[in-house]
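Researcher: Quick one. two chains, 688 residues in total.
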Amino acid sequence: MRILLVGTPNVGKTTVFNLLCKSHEKTGNYHGVTVGVCEKKSAVDPHDVVCDLPGVYSLFGQTMEEKIADDYLKKYGKNSDSVLLQIIDARHLKSGLKLTAELCAQGFPLFVLFTRENALQKSGGALEKEKLGAQFPCPFFVVERLKREDLSFLVSKLHAVQTGKNATDFTAPNARCLDGNALFSSLKTSGAILPRAEKSPNALVRFALSPVCFFLLTAFVFWITFGKNSIGEVLKNCVERGVKRFASWAGEKISSPTVRSLVCDGVLGGVGSVLSFLPQIAMLYLFLIFTEESGLGSFLAFGSDGLFSLFSLSGKTAFSVLLGYGCTAAAIPSTRTLDDKTAQKKAVACLYFLPCSAKLPVYLTLLSSAFSSPFWGALLLYALGTGAGLCASAFFADENDGFLLEIAEFSFPNPLFVFKKLCFQLKQFIMKVSTVVLVFTVSVWFLSSYSFSGQCAREQSFLYRGLGFLRFLFYPMGVRDFPTAFAALGGLVAKENIAGILASFPSAGKLYGAPAASYLTFITLLPPCASALASSAREIGKRQTLIFFSMQTAIAFLSAYLVYFLCLGGSVILIAILIFALTVSACAKRRKRKRNDERIRGR
Amino acid sequence: MKTLYDLALGAHALVKDVRLNDGISARLKSLGVEKGAEITLLKISLFRRTFLLSTGETWVGLRKNIARNIIVADLETPSASEGGK
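Model:
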């Protein structure tokens, strides 16, 4: 049997999917978390396949993810082995029942699961199951939250619908009224449903809806993550000390100089230094998870729409921007919730510049060597990346239809669930560091330590001879050290590589003043990693991805050169040139006016 | 002719017409903003750029270019008609 999970956005389809399949698909308290179809074998009955579809308000929806769901329903919805499980959040009966009416009218084998019954009752509404049973056009089940013990009962009901024993009764009066409003009104009139009373936002919610709330919250998160003697810094120092102690212990135990160099300089130097940033990355993710799960992301979308509209973007982009601070590769598919392809391209162009969490270790490595506290430096770099992203999207023509979004309700997320989600994200980070970064760092260590004649000085190594010419690209930034230059380009594979390589070479990353400022500018504006580019190619096409990549690389180099030029007194030269140009132009205008006056007087 | 854009904060209104393209009209209808629906304006963002309204069960956020094309008529506020409920 194929179970197709359908429903309006943000009703908990993916939560049901995760329960049925024992899966960890992404969930969140905002509209448009699921943007593609996800299929998995059911954990309840291995013969069943469960399909999680993106949320739809209507079968005739216009957005990209609604079309994906519609196409899937057309392809599989009416197959003999298929059954549709519609989830309805009882607090939003009207929109849910409108979709039920459409699905019934199309003749899909349907079973409805009403969730959040207690929440409905608390807000003054009710579901009268007996009356509903007599009138509802298809079988249903009512719960507060679906639990593991309900699963086998639910699946048996679905089997009954699929085999036709308890199928949708198309002869029932409500099945014949194809209009969702009519279905809602008739159920309401008969007393089968009592929708909840209208809810006004309280003072806290009003504050959360303003952009000031987001800026204050972001400043707080930055402070506890990067601030001097903050929790983030204290935890980072603890991990760093642990890695150093382990490296010195390993150095004493290993007698072979080559193996010692590989383990201490290559593995622990590179990978260990990236892992020491784990506490700060955890704090950043904690904030992102809380924003996603509480519904604050939805408020942020509303509050920031005014700002986004200045850059011809919709407030809906706020969700993607928020995810982009975590991982660009994960954020790019979320742009499917936007209205059209042009809006999606604009959002992707913005995401290319946003600093993802993998850039954090690089910023902190470089800033820590130049400043006692990296707080203001990190804040400035995040502002630079975000500003560059918003400006990049402003270059597109403004064809925006505007902003239209259902605002999710605020609710404190379950701490255990947040903890589990955080552990999952950190596991992903550790996996990446222990695979991609480890392989890259060890390869770089080998290539920079060996030549055809065996172990050698760095200048004779494979890496230096093969790619040494690349350092010339970094000379106009004031960066003369080859490993530092190479580290920046290694970031194109994965941003964590930059910090890994900088930590592996004693001379690398020791930048101060103008070279540090220009190098950090380059890193901030550097295009996203290979996996993000692959994700971008899937969404906006290979050609557009190549254009974005080339343009961003050029912008990163030119901006870094400009920063170095300005830092080295270039600003004085630039102002002098501007003053000279203005004076010459003013003199020329004056002379022209004088000549005109003389000519007029002469006449 | 009054539009949603002209409503005061907290105003309760009846939607008279929605003059927008099919895609946006359909989405608004799904969210409960359609001819004959009762709405309440809950919040207006800085410089009247974005509006938050309630359609009973649902909160909907929309931009001023959409708000200017939703024709409304003022109703009594629910608190006045329902004795402050």
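The interface with chain B takes residues 8, 57-58, 60-62, 91-95, 98, 195-201, 206, 209-211, 301-303, 305-306, 309, 314-315, 339, 401-407, 409 of chain A (CB under 8 Å).
Researcher: Thanks, that's what I needed.
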